[in-house]
Each structure stands twice: as structure tokens, then as C-alpha cells.
Specification:
This protein has 84 residues and is mainly alpha-helical. It contains 5 helices and no strands. This is DUF2624 domain-containing protein.
Length: 84
């Protein structure tokens, strides 16, 4: 399980806007291209563990400041899908 978590965290920490849009579409999460660009730029290189509730919560709050609370809620939905 730890290996899978490492793979998912690595992918999230290197995600591009296009990949984020692809995942959002796959999981029926509504974000637009501009929002995906801002979110991906913010996430990249931060080495965030999305399986850690505190780290994920902090990231979602940061995303809410960047792209708005409704987008942050949608992105959190996407993250939850990855962690289940």
C-alpha cells in the first residue's frame, strides 16, 4: 500500500495542468483550464502527501485562495478519489 501511496503522491507533486484536467474529467470534477494551470503550478514541487489529512486540508485552503472555494471543494473531491 505504501508503494501505491508513493506513486500517487509523486504524480500529484509533478502534475501538469493537462493531466489535472484529464483526471478532473475522468472523475466528473468541474475545473477549467485556467484554474488547472494555477492549481498545478501551486502543487508542483511541494512534496505534499495527499494521504495525510492535515496536509491535504492545508493544500485545499491554499487552492481556495487561488481559485475559489467551489474549485477547492471540487479538487478535494478529486483528491479523495485518489486516496480511497
Amino acid at each position: 500500500m505504501k508503494l501505491l501511496q508513493n506513486v500517487i503522491n509523486h504524480k500529484m507533486n509533478t502534475v501538469t495542468a493537462d493531466e489535472l484536467l484529464k483526471y478532473a474529467k475522468q472523475f466528473n470534477v468541474r475545473i477549467n483550464e485556467a484554474q488547472a494551470e494555477k492549481i498545478a503550478a501551486h502543487i508542483r514541487g511541494k512534496n505534499i502527501n495527499i494521504f495525510d489529512d492535515a496536509q491535504r486540508s492545508k493544500l485545499i485552503k491554499e487552492i481556495a485562495k487561488i481559485a475559489g472555494p467551489s474549485v477547492a471543494k471540487e479538487v478535494n473531491t478529486l483528491f479523495v478519489q485518489f486516496t480511497q
